[in-house]
Amino acid sequence: MTGFSSRVEQVSISGIREVFEAAGEDAINLGLGQPDFPTPDHAKQAAVEAIESGESDAYTSNKGTLELREAIAAKHARDNDLDVDPENVIATAGGSEALHIALEAHVDQGQEVLFPDPGFVSYEALTHLAGGEPVPVELRADLTMDPADVEAAITDDTAAFVVNSPANPTGAVQSTEDMREFARIADEHDLLCISDEVYGRIVFEGEHRSPLEFAESDNVVVVDACSKTYSMTGWRLGWVTGSHERIERMLRVHQYCQACASAPSQYAAEAALSGPQDPVEEMVAAFEERRDVVLDGLEDMGLDVPTPQGAFYAMPRVPDGWVDEVIDRGVVVVPGEAFGENGAGHARISYATDMETLKEALAIMGEATAAVR
After folding, report:
1. Which of 25, 29, 138, 327 maximizes the CB count within 10 A of its CB?
2. Strands 158-164 and 334-335
3. What number of other Cβ atoms are within 10 A of residue 154's Cβ?
4. What is the pLDDT of residues 241-293, one digit of tens each?
5. Model confidence pLDDT, tens digit, residues 55-71
6. What is the residue-wise DSSP string for 229-242?
7. Helices within the chain (DSSP H only)
8. Nearest one of 85, 66, 65 to 76, comparing CA atoms
9. Residue 102 near residue 240 (C-beta atoms within 8 A)
């Protein structure tokens, strides 16, 4: 048979998927990175109406409908105090495609991309697929990324660095000063900063700020999505925004690999972004309540866990054998090394499930903790 590209041979199936497949059918799943809330009714209805009227039957503009891009611009003005031109937005097949086209458009063969470790699994894989060299940056003790460490890792071969706040898998939220520093680094070193802000609305303490607010050049692009904020993971609707020149290059990649985002999803996303935000506020309040229960439970077990200030993950430091013991007892958690070498000795726990199930899982984790000590 013919061979395969060196790029794809450097990428393996996600360690998260491997854990899911190994777990029993009746296991409690605390490994899933998606909200357990329904998509808001007004978003679903907008898609239904678009389908029934025939509005979603045809291709949209490569960038997405103007109405959606205007809703995205309004969202950034409302939530981030950013002035975004709707012409400088591309609607994508989820935040994953937005990350993909950002890297493809900016990374040449052999160029380096810096990213947090532990961090979202796609950063390393998509860098490989773009022909780049992934460079992990170890996190602070509180699981935030230190701008000084990013700056120290820059070489003549560095093309870009990724910032993720609130973060997957850690739940950490970068400070305003950190974000200001990331913007400075992008400006002064003439590097692209890719700011992954998919969890930007799910914040419990502190506040989410974007490096785009502080940048004096066009060296910041923002990736965002409806997936987590509006519980729309299956709708696959994200976006990327940046300068006209950067959007034009990313559009060249997008138009050939995707043409346009799903039209029904675009109508649903427009409604989600423009309509009542009460479902988001209710979901965030529920996640904060669950977080507090999870933190108390893990600390009662004697585990060290940095307090997550956003998203819906906790990442405790765990004893050897803990993850296997927990999974064997019927609770799915993800080993920290699935998110990078520096994740070893941790586990990612998603609390995107109901409170009763969380309490049952915590009781099982407590038994597992006692068993491995």
Report:
1. 327
2. unpaired
3. 15
4. 999 999 999 999 999 999 999 999 999 999 999 999 999 999 999 999 999 99
5. 999 999 999 999 999 99
6. TTT-GGG--EEEE-
7. 6-9, 15-22, 41-53, 66-80, 94-106, 122-129, 147-153, 176-189, 244-257, 263-274, 278-300, 322-328, 355-372
8. 85
9. yes
